[in-house]
Write a structure and sequence with these properties.
The chain has about 350 residues and is an alpha/beta fold. The chain is about 40% helix and about 20% strand.
Amino acid sequence: MTDQTARLAASRRDAILDALARTGSVRASEMTAELGVSPVTLRRDLQQLEEEGLLQRVHGGAVAPAGGVPARQAPAGTATIGVLVPSLDYYWPQVVRSLEAESRARGISVLLRGTSYELQDERPALERIVAQGDVSGLIVAPNTDTEFAPDVIDWLTASGLPFVLAERDAVRRPSGDPVDSVTTDHALGAVLAARHLAQLGHRKVGLLISRNSPTSRKIIAGWTTACRELGLTPADHVERVLPDRGDPGFSAAVNGVLDSVLGAGVTALLIHADREAMAIVDLALARGVSVPGDLSVIAYDDEFAELFTPALTGVAPPRAALGRAALESLLARMDDPSRPAHRVTISPKLNVRASTTAPK
């Protein structure tokens, strides 16, 4: 076994133990998807951990041993990286867990901070990260839709620290040179959804998004192009930006959208993101609209779409792979500060479930 293979195995096993420590059990199907490994590889990892007394294998996965998961000593840290993400309760936890597991395997400490999607200027948070430890590099997911976004990139550049943007694209002022980034090809995710609906026989389809964001704009671009190429009647599309789910007018707005959808003969929707997709399906079912009989639904993000009833077909960004790739990119920048900017794009996948079928 090579050193790199050993590090990857240790990283996977740390991720399995992290999941056990949080919930007391893991499902094999979920862990293979999260870690991006084959069932055979996962079984080998579970067997090794069971032999070490760190878990007990059961049908379909594993559970924590009596007394809980014993603590494992992480490798002594040789460097610390700072990580700043806009949420620690949706989308980003899987990115962060994979990044932390890979960092531990390499003897790297992670100083993690979460902000919010509403934060306008991340510079104070970044300054606190740098002030709290001897940070060797940064992985950041800033808000690129505010007036302060260019200033944040200026701050990162002026800090002298290697940095990589996660799920964000940006350029430096005034040169316009791109900075290192690792992103999901969200446009491709929308294309995968449109192709699936077209293959099922849908011709009138709609797109609903929960906020105007860099992700939603890429989804719209991919969706528009795919629908045009597939002949999915672009003139009849229903494309709406939904209000926040906490907005008192959310239900009324969704019911208005459903009126438009049904009135236009739309038979399928792509909805960003999972929570909004679930809320819309709930309201549709309450109105007697069958999902997927009358209306097929695809959720974009696939964070917990599988848990809904009916289980929602979902476009799944490669969150675990994105975390590992961001770390790899940062370490490469730390090793070679003069290398050209690398913009890594990772493909999502479509998980087909019970919420999509051929139109009546």
